[in-house]
């Protein structure tokens, strides 16, 4: 996740590897934020819009969230996070159940960390 410049919102990116049947991400929560929702970004001309996705389908294989595309939007943060912190996210999938992960906080311009977490 990139260190946010305000407490109003932060964008988080991750890689989900699904070795099973297509699944659906039904909800996400974090102790850091009032709400976490998947968004996709759409560019029409010079207009950039973020559109909430209520049920994000996770196909078999690798799903990459990335700047300019699908991301998780955390809103109403309850504390300041800076580079080096980590943020807990709990993701609930309709088939795979609940997974809790730790997302490292980096600054814009830092290279994204290599995914190493394989929660069970
Ligand atoms: Cu967004």
Describe this structure in words.
With 120 residues, the chain is mainly beta. The chain contains no helices and ten strands. The chain is globular, with a radius of gyration of 14 Å. The mean pLDDT is 92. Residues 11, 39, 50, 71, 73 line the site of copper (II) ion.
How many domains in all? 1
Computed Rg: 14 Å
Which hetero compounds are present in the coordinates?
Answer: copper (II) ion
Share of residues in helices: under 10%
Average pLDDT works out at 92
**CATH fold naming:** Immunoglobulin-like
Number of strands: 10
What proportion of the residues form beta strands (DSSP E)?
Answer: over 45%
Which CATH C-level class is it?
Answer: Mainly Beta
Elements, N to C (H/E): EEEEEEEEEE
Give the CATH superfamily. Answer: PCu(A)C copper chaperone
List segments where confidence is low: pLDDT < 50 over at least 5 consecutive residues. none
Strands of the biggest beta sheet: in what spatial order?
1-8-4-5
Layout of helices and strands, plus pairs?
Layout: E1 9-12, E2 15-18, E3 23-29, E4 33-44, E5 47-52, E6 56-58, E7 61-64, E8 71-77, E9 86-93, E10 97-104
Antiparallel strand pairs: 1-8, 2-7, 3-6, 3-9, 4-5, 4-8, 9-10
The chain binds copper (II) ion.
Question: What labels describe this entry?
Answer:
120 residues, mainly beta, Immunoglobulin-like, four-stranded antiparallel beta sheet, 10 strands, binds copper (II) ion
